[in-house]
User: Fold Porin from Pseudomonas putida.
Amino acid sequence: MRVMKWSMIALAVAAGTSQLAVASSQDESKGFIEDSTLNVKTRLLYFSRDPRNTETPAFGLPKRSEETGLGFLGTFESGFTQGTVGFGVDAIGMLGIKLDGGRGTRGTGLFPTSSDPATSGDQHSQDDYSKGGAAAKFRISDTVLKVGDQFTALPVFATDDSRLLPEIAQGALITSNEIKGLTLHAGRFTSLTGQADTYRDSLHLKKADVIGGVYAITDTLSTSLYYSKVEDYWRKYYGNVNWSLPLSDKQGLVFDFNIYDTKSTGSAEYLAYDDDKLDNTAFSLSAAYNIGAHTFTIAHQRVTGDGDYGYGVDGGGTVFLANSVARSDFNAEDERSWQARYDLNFAEYGIPGLTFMTRYVRGTGANVEGTNNGKEWERDIDVKYVLQEGPAKDLSFRVRQATYRSADGVYYGSPSLDELRLIVEYPLSIL
Assistant:
């Protein structure tokens, strides 16, 4: 398996050697200040989680969790100095403010929690929190080395942005685009700050090494291959094939295949799997049919081997599987799941910026405590509108509703519940 993957990368490199760009990105650099950007994104988020048919919610949380927060994410990205080796600096600053939510409704994951000595250590959400960081970057030709605090979106190391403020990774990442159609990555990360945390290494990451890349074979066919090793957790292989097949001007098919092979390494001391070792394969295959404003998608996902598909210490977004949805990932040991999804783009009906999505996912055969045929299902609805013009251009309003049910507690013992998120975002470009 490993030989095949590295052979494919070698073939991709060989195929692209005749496609080297004449002028590189560094050759076209205008300077440190001239190419700088400064952006601030504001996010207002209401989050409600209501467990059903249970008096004891999982993880010791209240019967109902309900909180509202206002988040600010500022990012400064300098340009690169001119010359053979370009130098630049990126900076991140974040602030989260609690607008509503008390001790009895904590547990949404929007805010850090603290113990109150006056109430015998009773947990409550903090009123505000902040975090940030910076990174130095260097560029030669079309290859960039970034060292320091950063966001990542690799299938084997991806920071999560599903709450008020995103995760931040600390480490070094090389991104190379020297060959047309081929993007290569190699990096080492040594800590990870959680979404609702303010201190480094809150997710207990010791070291994660990653390598891999994406190759666009044609305009409609691409493949990805990645490897990672997280010290005292696991090593992972990841593969992807994505194929778009146009049928006409307004019709087309898209096929997407993802696969992870995960195996425990080292002491696996932080694994929350009752000390069981992981040795499994998780894959998903989806097919989407688009006709005008409508997109219909079906997907199948399966986990085989020992243990659930594990992730988190390598980033809360490191689950590039079709049935990883709003609440559940359908990633339990031996679980098989199917998804049916429908998307509607109202631009075809004269309302650009308005989109609608609904999906239903059902999983069976999950090997969880108490049963080897655990079942779960989830139904999601997502409506979003983005202003297309005017002084508030790009201001977006979003409603996300999830209904999750599992009498077997498949999702790490989680009860059946309803979730509602109301999200208002406004990205502002200052430079």
User: Anything to note?
Assistant: Helices lie at 2-16. Residues 2-16 form the longest helix (15 residues).
